[in-house]
Write a structure and sequence with these properties.
- There is one protein chain.
- The chain is mainly beta and 688 residues long.
- It folds into 6 domains: 91 residues, Cadherins (Immunoglobulin-like), CATH 2.60.40; 96 residues, Cadherins (Immunoglobulin-like, Sandwich); 100 residues, Immunoglobulin-like (Sandwich), CATH 2.60.40; 98 residues, Immunoglobulin-like, CATH 2.60.40.60; 103 residues, Immunoglobulin-like (Sandwich); 103 residues, Immunoglobulin-like.
- Helix content is 6%, strand content 43%.
- The strands form 16 sheets. A 4-stranded mixed beta sheet has the order 1-7-6-3. A 4-stranded mixed beta sheet has the order 8-14-13-10, with no helix packed on it.
- A hairpin with a 6-residue loop joins β50 and β51.
- It is a single-pass type I membrane protein.
Length: 688
C-alpha cells in the first residue's frame, strides 16, 4: 500500500514521475469510476495523475529550499483515495536537491578593526555564508583574495561545524596602511560550482588588543515548548583580558542568527542571560543561534559561541479531525457496513501526546472502524428508516493520550434519503357512499384519501378506478376519479328503479420505482326520490274512454263496485299509496276505501236512482312533494250486461231543477200572476 518516488527539485511541469496504476497494481481504467483523489497536507498540489493511463507527472515545480528549509531529507507524503471499494494508498516523494542556490552572506560587507600591535597569528572570525542547498551543493570552502598581511584558515567548533578565520601573518603598521580591503569568496560543491563574494574591510587600530573569549564554544539548553515569556534558557559568559572599557563586554545575537529566533529569545546585553521573549512557535525540536560577545573598546573586538536549544514537547495540540470523504445523503435501505465517511485524525504532538483515541455515541446506528494509520471509516452498523429519523448529527470525539488529555469534537450531519418502501395507506378498507337518484352529471360523490410516509415522488399519491363492470356497463361510464386528490364524480344520473347499489375499488399508487399501491372498496347506495307517479293498473281505459263497471240495480249496501289497483315504482314512503274520491255524480251513493282502493255503495240502490253514474278516483303517494294519478270510472245500473255500453262522456247527472232558463220562466210567471192579481183587485174595488 505504499510506493516511494524520487524527483529532483525544479523539475519542469509535465515531466513524468512514474505510473501509479502500474506501480500499485491498479487497473488504470477504473481510476475515474472509483473517484480517485490525491490528499496531502501541503498547500500546493505538486503532482497530477492521468485518469486514463495512471501516469504520474509534475503539476508544479518544487522548490526544495522553500518546502523543507534546512531539513536534510525533504519528503512529500500523499494519500491516494479510491472508492467503490474504499482503498487508501500512501505515496512518498523524495525531493532531491540540485545546485540551484548560490552561497550568500548575511551582510553586503564586513568590517574588522585590528589593533596595530597585534602579533602575527592573531585570529578573527569571518562570517559564514549561507547556502540553502544541502550536501555537496552547500558551502564547501572559502578563499581570500591575496594579501601579504592575511591568510584564511578553517576552524571547527565543538559540534563539528566549520567556520572561516582571518589569520594575521604579518604585523600591521597603521601609519603605512590604515585600511586593508579583502574579498572573501564562498564556493559550494555543485557541478558547476557556484560562489559568492563579500568585501572584508580591515581597519587597523592601535588599541584594545584582546577579544572576549567564551567559556564554551557551544552552549546547550532545554526548555518546554509552552514556557512563558521571561523563562531563563541559559546564561553565557565571556572574559576579556583588557581593562577598563576595552574589557567591558556586551552580549548580542550574531547577524547570522535568523530574525524569527531573535524575536523569540532575548539576551541581556550585560549579564548574558538568554530568556524566552514570546511564543515558541516552531516545529523544529532543535534551535541553533550564534551569540556574539563584543567589548566596549573604541574599536570593539568580538567572538562568537553557538547556542543549541532543545524544545521539549508538551501536550498543547489537540487532535485535528479532517473529513476526507463524506457521502450524504445515504439511502435508507443501505446495508450495515456501508462506508459513509473517511476521517483523518492527526495530533501534531509527538510520542504519547500525539496518540489519539476516537469514538462516537453508542445510541446511533453507526460505528467507527480504524483504517490505515490515523484514518477511520464511518460505517453503518444497523438498519436505517427515514420515516422514523430523517438525519443524524454524529459527534466524533477524538482524545489524545497526553496528561492532561485534550479532546476535540466534530459533528457530521448525515441525511437519510428516501426509498420507496411504504405503500399508500387508506384509513379503512371500505367506505359507504349514499347518493340520491337523478343526480346532475358531474356531481361530487365522495373523496377517498390515502397517505404515504415516503417523501417526494415516492410519497406523491395518484388515484384511479380499477376496471370492473356495473349493471353490464364499464365502471368508467358511471364514475370518474380525480388523479390528484381522489375526488369521485358521477358521469351519469343514477336511477334507483334500475340500480339500487353497486361497489367498486379505487386504487392509490405512489410514483416510486417500482410503484407501490393499495385499494379501497367503495359501496355506493342509491337513495330513492319521488320521481314516479302512481300507475293505475285497474280499471283501465282504452283510447281515452271511461272504464265502465255494471252494478245490479237493486244492489245492497256495501256492494263492491270495483277495486282500484295502482303501483308506484318508487320505494318506501314514496311508494305508499292512498285512494281518494275526487268527484262523484252522487256523493251519497258511493264511498272509497283510502288504503285498499275498494269502491263500494253506501246504501241500497233505489228504483229512482239514475242509471248512469261517474266517479273520479285520485291515487296519491306519500312523497315530498306527493305525486298522483286519476282514473274515471263509469257505473251503469243494470241487471244484465247491455249489448252496447252507454256514453259516459257527459256528466251522467240529472239536469238541475233550477237552471238559468227555469229561473227566467219562474220570474216571468210570478210577474204575470202578480199583475193579474192586481187587476182583479182593481176590478173589485171599482165594483164596490
Amino acid at each position: 500500500g505504499q510506493v516511494v518516488y524520487s524527483i529532483a527539485e525544479e523539475t519542469e511541469r509535465g515531466a513524468s514521475v512514474g505510473n501509479i496504476a502500474k506501480d500499485l497494481g491498479i487497473d488504470a481504467a477504473t481510476l475515474s469510476a472509483r473517484k480517485f483523489r490525491m490528499i496531502t497536507g501541503s498547500s500546493k498540489q505538486y503532482f497530477n495523475i492521468n485518469a486514463s493511463t495512471g501516469a504520474l507527472s509534475v503539476n508544479e515545480p518544487i522548490d526544495r529550499e522553500q518546502l523543507c528549509e534546512l531539513k536534510s531529507a525533504c519528503l512529500l507524503n500523499y494519500e491516494l483515495v479510491l472508492e467503490n471499494p474504499l482503498d487508501l494508498y500512501r505515496m512518498e516523494f523524495k525531493v532531491l536537491d540540485i545546485n540551484d542556490n548560490s552561497p550568500s552572506f548575511p551582510l553586503s560587507e564586513y568590517h574588522i578593526n585590528m589593533p596595530e600591535f597585534l602579533s602575527p597569528g592573531a585570529r578573527f572570525t569571518l562570517p559564514n555564508a549561507q547556502d540553502l542547498d544541502e550536501g555537496t551543493n552547500s558551502v564547501q570552502n572559502y578563499t581570500l583574495s591575496p594579501d601579504e598581511h592575511f591568510h584564511l584558515e578553517m576552524q571547527t567548533r565543538g559540534d563539528g561545524s566549520k567556520y572561516p578565520e582571518l589569520v594575521l601573518k604579518k604585523a600591521l603598521d597603521r601609519e603605512q596602511q590604515a585600511t586593508h580591503r579583502l574579498v572573501l569568496t564562498a564556493k559550494d560543491g555543485g557541478d558547476p560550482p557556484k560562489s559568492s563574494d563579500v568585501p572584508v574591510i580591515v581597519t587597523v587600530l592601535d588599541t584594545n588588543d584582546n577579544a572576549p573569549e567564551f567559556e564554551h564554544s557551544v552552549y546547550r539548553a532545554s526548555i518546554l515548548e509552552n514556557s512563558p515569556s521571561g523563562t531563563l534558557v541559559v546564561q553565557v559568559h565571556a572574559t576579556d583580558l583588557d581593562e577598563g572599557p576595552n574589557g567591558e563586554i556586551r552580549y548580542s545575537f550574531s547577524n547570522t542568527t535568523s530574525a524569527d529566533l531573535q524575536q523569540m529569545f532575548f539576551i541581556h546585553p550585560h549579564t548574558g542571560e538568554v530568556t524566552v521573549n514570546g511564543v515558541l512557535a516552531v516545529q523544529r525540536p532543535l534551535l541553533e543561534m550564534l551569540i556574539e560577545a563584543r567589548d566596549n573598546g573604541a574599536f570593539g573586538m568580538s567572538s562568537t559561541a553557538k547556542l543549541l536549544v532543545e524544545i521539549t514537547d508538551v501536550n498543547n495540540h489537540g487532535p485535528e479531525i479532517t473529513i476526507t470523504s463524506l457521502s450524504s445523503p445515504i439511502p435508507e435501505d443501505a446495508v450495515p457496513g456501508t462506508v459513509i465517511a473517511l476521517l483523518s485524525i492527526l495530533d501534531k504532538d509527538p510520542g504519547e501526546n500525539g496518540k489519539v483515541t476516537c469514538q462516537i455515541p453508542d445510541n446511533l446506528p453507526f460505528q467507527l472502524k480504524p483504517s490505515l494509520e490515523n484514518y477511520y471509516s464511518l460505517i453503518t452498523s444497523g438498519l436505517l428508516d427515514r420515516e422514523l429519523i430523517s438525519g443524524y448529527n454524529i459527534t466524533i470525539t477524538a482524545t489524545d493520550l497526553g496528561s492532561p488529555p485534550i479532546t476535540t469534537q466534530k459533528t457530521l450531519w448525515v441525511q437519510i434519503s428516501d426509498v420507496n418502501d411504504n405503500p399508500p395507506v387508506f384509513g379503512a378498507d371500505t367506505c359507504d357512499v349514499f347518493v340520491e337518484e337523478n343526480n346532475p352529471l358531474g356531481a361530487f360523490l365522495y373523496q377517498v384519501s390515502a397517505s404515504d410516509p415516503d417523501m417526494g415522488e415516492n410519497g406523491r399519491v395518484s388515484y384511479m378506478l380499477r376496471n370492473s363492470t356495473v349493471a353490464g356497463s364499464t365502471l368508467a361510464s358511471f364514475l370518474s376519479v380525480s388523479l390528484a386528490n381522489g375526488s369521485i364524480y358521477a358521469k351519469r344520473a343514477f336511477d334507483f328503479e334500475q340500480l339500487r347499489s353497486f361497489y367498486f375499488q379505487v386504487e392509490a399508487k405512489d410514483n416510486g420505482s417500482p410503484a407501490l399501491s393499495a385499494a379501497i372498496t367503495v359501496n355506493v347506495y342509491i337513495s330513492d326520490q319521488n320521481d314516479n307517479a302512481p300507475a293505475i293498473l285497474y280499471p283501465t281505459s282504452q283510447n281515452g274512454s271511461v272504464a265502465v263497471e255494471v252494478v245490479p240495480r237493486l244492489a245492497d249496501e256495501d256492494y263492491l263496485v270495483t277495486k282500484v289497483v295502482a303501483d308506484d315504482e318508487d320505494n318506501a314512503q314514496n311508494a305508499w299509496l292512498s285512494y281518494h274520491l275526487a268527484h262523484s255524480s252522487d256523493s251519497t251513493l258511493f264511498r272509497l276505501a283510502p288504503h285498499s282502493g275498494e269502491l263500494r255503495t253506501t246504501r241500497s240502490m233505489r228504483s229512482t236512482d239514475f242509471l248512469k253514474h261517474k266517479v273520479v278516483v285520485v291515487v296519491r303517494d306519500h312523497g315530498d312533494p306527493p305525486l298522483s294519478s286519476t282514473v274515471t270510472v263509469g257505473i251503469l245500473l243494470a241487471d244484465t250486461l247491455p249489448q252496447a255500453l252507454p256514453d259516459f262522456d257527459d256528466s251522467g247527472e240529472p239536469p238541475p231543477l233550477l237552471n238559468t232558463t227555469n229561473i227566467y220562466l219562474i220570474v216571468s210567471l210570478a210577474c204575470v200572476s202578480c199583475i193579474f192579481a192586481a187587476f182583479l183587485l182593481f176590478l173589485a174595488i171599482v165594483r164596490l
